[in-house]
């Protein structure tokens, strides 16, 4: 049986709650054939206990630790040092750091605070030997610049989550050794450019995700997103890349474990 992993979702989001609690969402995903998922942290000051509890309770559910760029100006998030972040990742099911990055579309936090937070997260990744989950919106050049400056010449590994940038960003991210994660956006009718980019990404660098509760794929665009729906993204990539859905599942699951090595260590059959 093929393996499908949702590399990025938010199981503790209030916006996903109408569908059920985290355990119910995991059960629904498992029932649909999605075997694992990473529930991603946005507020380091608030979420880690809940995320670790969800990961502890559920087989093949992992989590991250980090501050979303939207929240980078909050004093409670700024208070965390690199050492504090590293300490929070000691739990066996914390498999990465993020989501961090830059969002200059919304600018809910100041650009300077976002950049400082991103650099701090990168330092923590290098210290903890964990991948970074990067959120990038309207900030491609700055994202690449900061990774080049802080990434210690390719030592930093990570993923451009919910990739929605252009071909140049994809090429530069790949040049840095980063993975590219496709969300439900790739299924949207107007996403021809993104589907064209998908054809240029080496198969061993592709991940899939939902970013649930956001961005539900076609034909569920009006609904709340959930990890079970990652199958639609796999289906779309299969069409675009001339593979079967199961092949996309296995390829992206294998890539997932190559990047999130701690997830491989705690994988349960
Ligand atoms: Zn994001
Ligand atoms: Zn997210």
Model description:
The protein is an alpha/beta fold and 269 residues long. It has one domain (5-265): TIM Barrel. The protein has 11 helices and 8 strands. The chain has an 8-stranded parallel β-sheet with strand order 1-2-3-4-5-6-7-8. α7 (167-175) links the parallel β6 and β7 (179-182). α9 crosses α10 (245-259). It is globular. The mean pLDDT is 97. It binds zinc ion (2 copies). The site of one zinc ion has 4 residues, from loops.
Helices and strands in order, then pairings?
Layout: E1 5-9, H1 22-32, E2 36-39, H2 48-57, E3 61-65, H3 75-78, H4 82-88, E4 94-103, H5 111-128, E5 132-137, H6 140-150, E6 158-160, H7 167-175, E7 179-182, H8 192-198, E8 206-208, H9 230-241, H10 245-259, H11 261-265
Parallel strand pairs: 1-2, 2-3, 3-4, 4-5, 5-6, 6-7, 7-8
Bound molecules: zinc ion (ZN) (2 copies).
